[in-house]
Write a structure and sequence with these properties.
Layout lengths: L6 H19 L7 H23 L19 H8 L9 H16 L11 H23 L22 H6 L1 H4 L3 H19 L48 H4 L4 H8 L1 E2 L2 E2 L2 H10 L9 E3 L6 E3 L1 H8 L3 H27 L1
Antiparallel strand pairs: 1-2, 3-4
Length: 340
């Protein structure tokens, strides 16, 4: 018996389960939507983790007991055994806690059937889970999941979506259900554990929303766009809340190089880092880079590691080639100036 299974078949089923979860969630009419999506999400993760184990020559079965059938690993045990195979750019802890919260929902779904607007929290957890799945799939198997899914979905809804922040802050909703309060307490503990472990809470729970408000409500918005500007020729007003760069951009260049370590089987060096950041202009993007006004200190966010880790080998090679040509052109300029 093959105790490892076929990692290719496991991987194919993992991708199929994740695609099914996305398709079901986006159906306009589907009873028992959240419950079905969570079951498929957990199934896709269990299969992906087992594919990682199989590819590394590890068994995906428990030890055979006499007179009992073979049993494959649960997602919990598969996750524990596969943690050592995670890439340096993706810390296992927040990813595991995200899956754990989805598992808690699945195991206790009967208690949430009448929880008002609870689906907004499940949506945020599922959205983060899909992003984690995509990043791990690319980092370990070189597969870009986004190339397999048609993301051109119609954003149509009868009711406006519930804002997650508003939902979490509405204590009147929480107190209607003991199960909801317990779930949110578990979420709060998970956030603290991830922070204490130095992990990225964005791997636990993230919502990619932009809130647009009239300029009259400027104090309440995260990002504000003028609905009707006094001068039609003027640009929209945009206000971005500042963050402590020590929290949002904690990494120096050497930290990024060390955390990535190797990329596509080759050492990730400072020169490769410089080539990639130049090619993709990461230093001009505040999502990835923060520079002090004095120009002395430059720091990077954890998103920089995710961005670089998702590049293909061809992307890196192209960056190195173009960066080399750029450096040569810079070295030739002084000589031409002397000739003139």
């Amino acid at each position: 018996m093959n105790y490892r299974g076929s990692y290719r078949k496991l991987l194919g089923n993992a991708r199929a389960a994740m695609t099914a979860a996305i398709e079901i969630y986006n159906k306009p009419i589907f009873e028992y939507r959240d419950e079905c999506v969570v079951i498929l999400l957990l199934n896709s993760w269990e299969l992906l983790l087992k594919a990682m184990l199989s590819k590394n020559g590890q068994s995906v079965f428990y030890k055979k007991r006499r007179r009992e059938p073979y049993r494959t690993l649960s997602w919990v045990d598969a996750f524990a055994r596969s943690e050592k195979y995670f890439p340096s750019s993706i810390r296992p802890q927040p990813v595991g806690m995200n899956i754990g919260l989805l598992s808690t929902y699945r195991d206790n779904a009967v208690h949430f059937y009448n929880a008002t607007d609870f689906g907004v929290l499940l949506y945020a957890l599922a959205q983060t889970s899909i992003k984690n799945f995509r990043d791990l799939l690319h980092a370990k198997f070189g597969i870009r999941f986004e190339d397999e899914v048609n993301w051109q979905l119609l954003p149509i809804g009868i009711h406006p979506p519930v804002d997650l922040v508003s939902y979490l802050g509405d204590t009147s909703v929480h107190h209607k259900s003991l199960a909801v309060r317990q779930f949110l307490s578990e979420l709060a503990r998970a956030v603290q554990d991830v922070k204490a472990g130095g992990g990225d809470t964005g791997r636990l729970l993230t919502v990619f929303n932009v809130k647009l408000e009239s300029v009259k409500k400027i104090g309440e918005a995260d990002a504000v766009v003028a609905v009707s500007a006094p001068d039609p020729a003027s640009a929209p007003l945009a206000i971005i809340r500042t963050q402590d760069p020590n929290a949002s951009h904690p990494l120096r260049q050497m930290d990024v190089v060390e955390k990535i370590g190797t990329l596509h089987g080759r050492p990730f060096t400072s020169h490769v880092f410089s080539a990639v950041t130049w090619k993709y202009e990461l230093k001009n993007n505040t999502q990835y880079c923060w520079r002090a006004n004095e120009g002395v200190l430059t720091k990077y966010s954890n998103d920089t590691i995710t961005f670089i880790s998702r590049l293909t080998a061809a992307d890196v090679d192209a960056a190195l080639t173009d960066y080399g040509a750029h450096l040569k052109s810079r070295r030739r300029k002084p000589a031409r100036m002397r000739e003139t």
